[in-house]
Automatic annotation (TrEMBL):
<dbReference type="InterPro" id="IPR011009">
    <property type="entry name" value="Kinase-like_dom_sf"/>
</dbReference>
<feature type="compositionally biased region" description="Polar residues">
    <location>
        <begin position="1"/>
        <end position="10"/>
    </location>
</feature>
<dbReference type="InterPro" id="IPR017441">
    <property type="entry name" value="Protein_kinase_ATP_BS"/>
</dbReference>
<keyword id="KW-0067">ATP-binding</keyword>
<dbReference type="GO" id="GO:0005524">
    <property type="term" value="F:ATP binding"/>
</dbReference>
<dbReference type="Pfam" id="PF00069">
    <property type="entry name" value="Pkinase"/>
</dbReference>
<feature type="region of interest" description="Disordered">
    <location>
        <begin position="1"/>
        <end position="45"/>
    </location>
</feature>
<feature type="domain" description="Protein kinase">
    <location>
        <begin position="100"/>
        <end position="361"/>
    </location>
</feature>
<dbReference type="InterPro" id="IPR008271">
    <property type="entry name" value="Ser/Thr_kinase_AS"/>
</dbReference>
<keyword id="KW-0418">Kinase</keyword>
<dbReference type="GO" id="GO:0004674">
    <property type="term" value="F:protein serine/threonine kinase activity"/>
</dbReference>
<keyword id="KW-0723">Serine/threonine-protein kinase</keyword>
<feature type="compositionally biased region" description="Low complexity">
    <location>
        <begin position="27"/>
        <end position="43"/>
    </location>
</feature>
<dbReference type="InterPro" id="IPR000719">
    <property type="entry name" value="Prot_kinase_dom"/>
</dbReference>
<comment type="similarity">
    <text>Belongs to the protein kinase superfamily.</text>
</comment>
<keyword id="KW-0547">Nucleotide-binding</keyword>
<feature type="compositionally biased region" description="Basic and acidic residues">
    <location>
        <begin position="13"/>
        <end position="26"/>
    </location>
</feature>
Length: 399
């Protein structure tokens, strides 16, 4: 992607941990937030309306975390900064004073390490992600913090609980999601049905609709950023993670970013004065994810044999079909929804409200969604796709 800056997803799949127990084979995410200073807070619209930030990281979430009247840190979302007395007379606090961390990390990445932890006060299990500042982009961290503080809580969005900061690293305390990534979970459990896809896509769309209602565009929806809360299929809830590329939708967005295999055509092909895009880029990403869920291969690379440039050319042309035998038994309603999501013209592309009102989601208009497995091999097809694509399609951001 030219001079794109590849960066690892903020989602950390802790199944990379050395432990092989089901308890440790979890997926957790780490995002970011910040706290108060003596300076005038920078507002969240200011933070999210710029693609590059020039304020100090310790100012970034001040507006979201300081109460309007007494300027105390909001108790529901405590944020402490290591080595700085920013807790208004409550004294300096360290992450080890607040959370007990396991000795062995759950997983390691290029720029971060994740530990399972427990809050000493509440006994809540958490994921604590330590990010080396020298190895990552502060702007992405600030953006993710600001987005998560703006949305606060939603049942289908990973919750930020705490943030600690030092000159060398940022520690993010997040809700611990132990169900793994959605695609990997489905691949592991065996053949799944079209109705299973309805349930997961509906939850995903509800979360994205909530983001859009709050003026936030995710811009990097992909399988690795969709987690499940628990290994228990009866209780598992879809959770969106990684808000490093999120942006406030106040003006036309122009930064080319995301993960190209799931990016809308206008995000990867635009240039010039008229270039720009809006929240409909998230609709395209969900359309791509839905297509893959239903058949086990990518709409713009069905055989898995196209080069990156060939695949990008098909994305730009919105060239896909339902000709493969894998689509024979699927409902016409599912195909209709995809046709309204994978649309070249964003004006004609479905919004989240349109998606959630579609008969495939609502079950109205006599739509029958099959409950039998999509195919005997759908789970292995999905696993093969996931394995092939995971390290091929990385996040990028071009100025």
């Amino acid at each position: 992607m030219g001079n794109a800056k590849s960066s690892a997803s903020q989602c950390v799949d802790v199944r990379e941990a050395k432990s092989t127990t089901a308890h440790d084979k979890a997926a957790s995410t780490a995002c970011t937030s910040t706290s108060s200073t003596e300076k005038t807070p920078t507002s969240l619209p200011d933070l999210l309306s710029n693609d590059s930030f020039d304020v100090e990281f310790t100012q970034a979430a001040n507006a979201a975390l300081v109460a309007d009247d007494d300027k105390n840190v909001v108790d529901a979302s405590p944020v402490h900064v290591v080595g700085h007395d920013l807790t208004r007379g409550r004294g300096r606090r360290r992450v080890d004073d607040e959370y007990e961390l396991e000795r062995t990390p759950l997983g390691r990445g290029h720029y971060a390490t994740v530990w399972r932890g427990r809050c000493r006060k509440t006994n809540q299990d958490v994921a604590v992600k330590k990010i080396k500042r020298v190895l990552t982009d502060d702007a992405r961290l600030k953006s993710e913090v600001a987005a998560l503080q703006r949305i606060r809580t939603h049942p289908n969005i990973v919750t930020l609980l705490d943030v600690f900061e030092s000159p060398s690293e940022v520690l993010l305390v997040m809700e611990l999601c132990t169900g793994g990534e959605l695609f990997e979970r489905l691949a592991a459990k065996g053949p799944y049905s079209e109705m299973d896809c309805v349930r997961h896509v509906k939850s995903l769309a509800e979360a994205v609709a909530y983001l859009h209602e709050n003026g936030i565009v995710h811009r990097d929806l992909k399988p690795e950023n969709i987690l499940l809360s628990t290994p228990d299929d009866n209780d598992a809830v879809v959770k969106i993670a990684d808000f490093g590329l999120a942006k406030l939708n106040t003006t036309t967005m122009k930064t080319k970013c995301g993960t190209w295999g799931y990016s809308a055509p206008e995000m990867i092909s635009g240039s010039g004065v008229s270039f720009g895009y809006d929240a409909k880029v998230d609709s395209w990403s969900i359309g791509t994810i839905l297509y893959i869920l239903l058949c086990g291969f990518h709409p713009f690379d069905p055989m898995g044999s196209r080069s990156d440039n060939e695949m990008i050319a098909h994305i730009k042309a919105c060239s896909f079909t339902f000709d493969d035998p894998a689509w024979v038994g699927l409902s016409g309603s599912a195909k209709d929804l995809i046709r309204h999501l994978l649309v070249l013209d964003p004006v004609k592309r479905y919004s989240m409200a349109d998606l959630l009102a579609h008969p495939w989601i609502t079950g109205r208009e006599g739509v029958h969604v099959p409950i039998q497995p999509l195919s005997p091999t759908i789970h292995t097809d999905l696993a093969r796709y996931q394995q092939r694509s995971k390290h091929r399609m990385l996040s990028y951001e071009e100025d």
